[in-house]
Amino acid sequence: xxxxxxxxxxxxxxxxxxxxxxxxxxxxxxxxxxxxxxxxxxxxxxxxxxxxxxxxxxxxxxxxxxxxxxxxxxxxxxxxxxxxxxxxxxxxxxxxxxxxxxxxxxxxxxxxxxxxxxxxxxxxxxxxxxxxxxxxxxxxxxxxxxxxxxxxxxxxxxxxxxxxxxxxxxxxxxxxxxxxxxxxxxxxxxxxxxxxxxxxxxxxxxxxxxxxxxxxxxxxxxxxxxxxxxxxxxxxxxxxxxxxxxxxxxxxxxxxxxxxxxxxxxxxxxxxxxxxxxxxxxxxxxxxxxxxxxxxxxxxxxxxxxxxxxxxxxxxxxxxxxxxxxxxxxxxxxxxxxxxxxxxxxxxxxxxxxxxxxxxxxxxxxxxxxxxxxxxxxxxxxxxxxxxxxxxxxxxxxxxxxxxxxxxxxxxxxxxxxxxxxxxxxxxxxxxxxxxxxxxxxxxxxxxxxxxxxxxxxxxxxxxxxxxxxxxxxxxxxxxxxxxxxxxxxxxxxxxxxxxxxxxxxxxxxxxxxxxxxxxxxxxxxxxxxxxxxxxxxxxxxxxxxxxxxxxxxxxxxxxxxxxxxxxxxxxxxxxxxxxxxxxxxxxxxxxxxxxxxxxxxxxxxxxxxxxxxxxxxxxxxxxxxxxxxxxxxxxxxxxxxxxxxxxxxxxxxxxxxxxxxxxxxxxxxxxxxxxxxxxxxxxxxxxxxxxxxxxxxxxxxxxxxxxxxxxxxxxxxxxxxxxxxxxxxxxxxxxxxxxxxxxxxxxxxxxxxxxxxxxxxxxxxxxxxxxxxxxxxxxxxxxxxxxxxxxxxxxxxxxxxxxxxxxxxx
Length: 811
Description:
- The chain has nine helices and 27 strands.
- By secondary structure, the chain is α+β, with helices and mostly antiparallel strands.
- A five-stranded antiparallel β-sheet has the order 1-8-5-3-2, with no helix packed on it. A five-stranded mixed β-sheet has the order 4-10-9-6-7. It has a four-stranded parallel β-sheet with strand order 12-15-16-17, sandwiched between helices.
- Strand 16 (292-296), helix 6 and strand 17 (343-347) form a beta-alpha-beta unit.
- The two termini are 47 Å apart.
């Protein structure tokens, strides 16, 4: 629990004639009240910029009063309380008496560092005419505050989940959801919570699936299970499988699992089954190297508009499953941490949704039951009607939240995993002795503002012997500048004293503090008696003779030292305007003097060799590409190179570790002499008893997902992708089917000999008595049999059509 503090308040009164000058934001953040008096209708309203604040931000509001009389006195009383009711603890309050100059009056309010551990706060205010309590008019407005948090030092945050996290995986595969009205392939109208969290962590969000690298693997429609939902949607288990098959998890990377909502939507009624799925995926990620996991509660799915018209019993059943899941996932987090010595956090999503649902105005919402988009399909289409202000809704469509809810979820995530920094000064509260530092203020090692230095001379007031040091003057350790000191007590301050050590005390000095033996009229530090260069310009360094670089020519080349870029030029050498001879200057700046430079005007960015030639000017290996464009230095003579200057003995096009000249598959990686390994197996699907078409299952693998060439007997089938394929071959009894697969120099073969089943001899019929005429109940009506068969075919077709329609909707 964070300790309560006395809030810092700033209030200002202002009388304005035009109301529009101080009306700041939309009507959504404006509350008002009114009362009738004998003079006019007394009204009071309040307006503030943002309903959601951070603990290091100030709460700012503007009270607007109207219906006033400039001859009366009025009383404005306001109170800032914790919680969402008037019974909450008062955190700040004030009572203000004022006499307006006109019928309208405005009051601005600013309060700092008032929030506690609660998210909810209530501002109440009352305006009345002094002496007339019955004229009082009151208003109240809710808002929210979240704790400022320092982000943990994570290399990456990798998420597996469903549409609440998907930033485009489903859209990339199926164009779902349609964008617009959705934002960039997300199942909402803005960025999702993970993108905001990644920004806070300083990490880029990369949407990816299968073998692609990326930290957002979530896929819209996914459940907690393994494999695919509806044959096409990779569930969380499949997402984890794909990632762990291709990537290891480093100790500084964090992984998150958020799923379960779709399971509940799809009718799952056993919460433990869902938690067991989460446990299985978590164990797999830990085995792959994960040392920190983030688990999530399921939000209150029973409240989404999709189930608005469901019975109370059905909603209660879903709520019970969700409650059981959330309790079980908390237990799972504790168990995983104990069993594997890993760090596991659970994000309290359910509570965050509930808080917004029951206190919508505190977060800027005014509709919690309907969706901003009115649609009949699974998702919203571009031709569906959408509210012009969608962010006043909690839900964008009938199952997904709006972007402001995603912002709230990101803040809840921060509070769950970050380090509390109440005042936002960059120092954790546990180490901060002053957790109410104002923004931008300087702090010391304890998190507190440093002591005051009133005159800004760098010496703190308690140690400053000379207060009010003039601005810009350098002070000593005692806080005194030269204009405040007279070190030699000659009556001339150190600031103007050219002879600061005049002795003995009492000797006569001039206006510059110098005695007759100390005078130095050009102030170069050399007294006049020994100064060979009188009239040296002020502040120019001089030598022992009193001469500055602008007055001497040390190498006697005709260029004063101040302008001579090459001091010490050999006598009689011809120099340029900078005083440099050819052996001293380097016109192109390549580090080789002009006298020895074989390549003039080498580019400044081009590193030169001893001859003064840069990479863009030389071709060291003689392959036709200058060194700056040549990625393969030292190409053997006679090899034809590519545009990068690399010959076959130097390049590895497919990146399998073998140079192109050493393998037969230079453009495809593989483990068998540079070619992908292949395999094939055959299986007869149905026994045969007579010649005809054999149904054979051919299972083909090709390393890296390549497509291998398949030859069946003498027939070439071309390149076929790996997997199991149906092979139809016309065979006779005892025939051997031979299948050869190959990719480059890598081959594999399998054969299958087909032996027909022996036909059993038909038994001779025994003599039977003459059959009696069939009875009506024993007669098989072939018409009925044919009708039943037709009905079965129709039902099968209907099922296939329904599945196709369902797949279409999911897309």
